[in-house]
Each structure stands twice: as structure tokens, then as C-alpha cells.
């Protein structure tokens, strides 16, 4: 049985940890939905909110199916019923079957994807437009609303992307980002490059003729294999890494600034306004490099995120099991990465970091240890439980294998979707969980104590 060790804890098996967690679900969670996946999904993203009702909202959810080749790989568009806060009964959320599919998640559309889906990112200006990374040098753009629904059986022709972005010289599998201010796409790959595209013209075409993509996509479902998707080349290609680029992210307030991390342990901040040609006066590598941190971690970097509320703060996650927070105004000391703080709460490589869309000091991190941690960097100097790492205020232990991706819900900021790629020891396939911790954990302490006092007074008045 696989063992797991976390900071300040004795080594326990995955099953023991999971059993402990499940017994606490009614206490720790306001709502939780567990959805068994036949095939693992390496990415999960919230799409647009479709409908608001009294007790729940309906929202799009983007997933994938990474298969063994017996059936096609797919990009899945699902409808999710998101139960509103303080609606679900504690007993109900704890009574789920790990092998069953949740009634809150229903598949809406299937797109037959050319190759496995390694990463999904939605366009902030129009979240029905998504980009995907696969095992190729290209980035694929999809209008998920106009793409036809397909039946995922062996031999079914692949769906045709609405647009293909070219520019990488080797496979680009994971590093992918969409710009929050303009319709720009950013990617990194095994060619050690960061590549930037504008899809403004494509978005304008869709807006002018929403039916055009639908009519051309249908051709891909026919036997006519001569029809190809339109493609565009890069706006800029940025060279500075010495190994595979693992993740990229835009500055939340500028379409010209972005950052990247890679297997060379580097964190690089770029500024597209300075071009891509080498210039010694700016950087010995590239004139567009704004700042270079050569030793951001002591191992490969897997992920990066830029704070949408404070653009000076950047998070990185690494194979050294830690998350580091950097201030862009003071990234290095003596040429070595100088983080504000190193967060140590995982026992395996960190795969994903993401700031909360709602609170400037809150972020999450997920790792190969099957844990999704929530942190508050403003609390790193506050008193906590003796075994708790500084800043850690919640541990989601509902997954039994590596948590490959998660996404905060901007429409319901404390609701998170997370996916794990489950190994054979935990049944294979994958697990999707949509969850919201109980608000007594994250609300203002004085407010919580006042509510508990009122509840205590109410119970006293009801007693015989």
C-alpha cells in the first residue's frame, strides 16, 4: 500500500488517510460532490455560468478523457449543478459512493480530440472559447458551443479544431495560458521556447458570424479529410530557458508582460514590448527578459501563477515539494532566487498552484501526494496548531492519488473543482470532486464567534 508523509505527521497509508478524511466531511464541508471518472482527466476548468436558481446554479465544466486507445481521447463539456452555500445537508454530502457518478455532473457534449488532452484553458473574455494542449507542437482552439457533439467510439473521425496555433518546434504539452485583458494565448514546450499568439481576428470572425464555425466543423465529421482547420503563426517567440518550459502565466493587468517556469529551475519574467532579439544591454539571453531567477527552486519547476489582486506576487511550485512566493520587486539575492516565503506542506512534487479569484492573500496548491492545500500568506506569522505549516488553513484529502489540476470558481469563489489521476492501487481512472469548505473556517474570526454565540443562545432558549 502506498505510504504518504506530510509535515508533522507520521506516515500513514492512503486508505487510512482517506478514511479519516471521509469521517470528517460533514464537519469540514458545506458541500461536496464526488464523481468517478472511467478515464483520468489531466485538466479541469470552470466555464460560464448558465443559470441561477434558488438553491443551486448551473454552470459549464470542461474536462477531458485520457484513454488507453481503445476509445478516442476526448474534450468533455459538462453541466454542473453547483449547490449554493448553506443549502446541502451534512449527512447527504458524506454519503457518496466512490465508484459512482455524481448526479450534479452531467455530460453535455463530447469533442473527439486529436491526441490526449493535457491542459485546458478558457478565454476570459469569452469562456466558450478554450485552448488545449496535446502531445504535439500545436495549440488547438475550440468554440465548444458550436462544435458538434460526437460519439466517442473507436473509428470515429476526430473533431476539427476551429483554429490551430503554430510556432513550437517540438511538443508543447502543459504550459498554456490565456490573457485576462486581451485575446492572447501563451504556450511553452520542449523546444525551450515561450510562444505568444493573438486570436483577436478569430474571435472577431466568430462574433460577426456565430454560425460559421458550426458549419465548417460539421465537415470534419464527414468523410472529407481534405478540409483542414485554419492556422495562424506566432506573434512572438521568446528564448531564455535551457530546458522544457512547464508553465506560463500572463500578468493580470498587462497583455505585454508574462512569466514562465521550467525544468531548468528558472523563473523568467518577460516584457513583449522589448522584442525578442538578443540585446546585451538588457539581458545576455534576450532583450525581452525583464527579470531572470536562475535558481527559483532546487529542482524542476512545474507551475506558476500571478496574483490577480497584487501584481507584485508570483507563486511557483516545484518537484522539491514546496511552493514559493516571490515579490517581483526583489526576486533575487546574489543571483539566487529569494522568495518572500517557502510553503512546506506537501510530501511530493507540487503540480498546480493558483491564487483565489476573490481574496488577495489566499491560494491553493496540489501535488502528487494527493493533497490540495489552501493557504493564507497573511497568516504565516500567526499562531497555528503545532504540526501545521505556517499559512496552511485547510487540507483537502479527498483524493487518493496525485491531484493533477484544480480550479477556483470565479462565480462562486470558495467552490473548487479538482481532479486526480488515480493509479491502479486506487482503482484506476480518475476522480473529480467539486467542494466548498464550511464558511466557519475562512470567515472573520469575530464574525464566526458571534454567530456561534447566537447559536448557543438559541439552543439555550429551546431547552426544556
How would you sum up the major sheet?
5 strands, mixed
Based on CA atoms alone, the radius of gyration comes out at 23 Å
Low-confidence segments? 1-10, 212-226, 277-283
Calculate the terminal CA-CA distance, rounded to whole Å: 52 Å
Structure description:
The chain is mainly beta. The protein has 5 helices and 33 strands. It has helices spanning 14-28, 90-94, 200-208, 212-220, 445-462, and strands at 3-4, 12-13, 29-37, 45-52, 56-65, 74-83, 105-112, 119-123, 126-133, 139-143, 163-165, 176-178, 184-188, 193-198, 231-232, 236-239, 245-251, 254-262, 267-271, 289-293, 301-306, 313-318, 323-327, 332-333, 336-337, 341-343, 350-355, 362-367, 372-376, 392-396, 403-408, 415-421, 430-437. It is globular, with a radius of gyration of 23 Å. The model is unreliable at 1-10, 212-226 and 277-283 (pLDDT under 50).
Keywords:
mainly beta; disordered N terminus; four-stranded antiparallel sheet; globular; single chain; five-stranded mixed sheet; 464 residues
Short description:
This protein is mainly beta and 464 residues long.
Question: What does the secondary structure layout of this molecule look like, with pairings?
Answer:
Blueprint: E1 3-4, E2 12-13, H1 14-28, E3 29-37, E4 45-52, E5 56-65, E6 74-83, H2 90-94, E7 105-112, E8 119-123, E9 126-133, E10 139-143, E11 163-165, E12 176-178, E13 184-188, E14 193-198, H3 200-208, H4 212-220, E15 231-232, E16 236-239, E17 245-251, E18 254-262, E19 267-271, E20 289-293, E21 301-306, E22 313-318, E23 323-327, E24 332-333, E25 336-337, E26 341-343, E27 350-355, E28 362-367, E29 372-376, E30 392-396, E31 403-408, E32 415-421, E33 430-437, H5 445-462
Parallel strand pairs: 11-15
Antiparallel strand pairs: 1-2, 3-33, 4-5, 5-6, 6-7, 8-9, 9-10, 10-11, 12-13, 13-14, 14-16, 17-18, 18-19, 19-20, 21-22, 22-23, 23-26, 24-25, 27-28, 28-29, 29-30, 31-32, 32-33
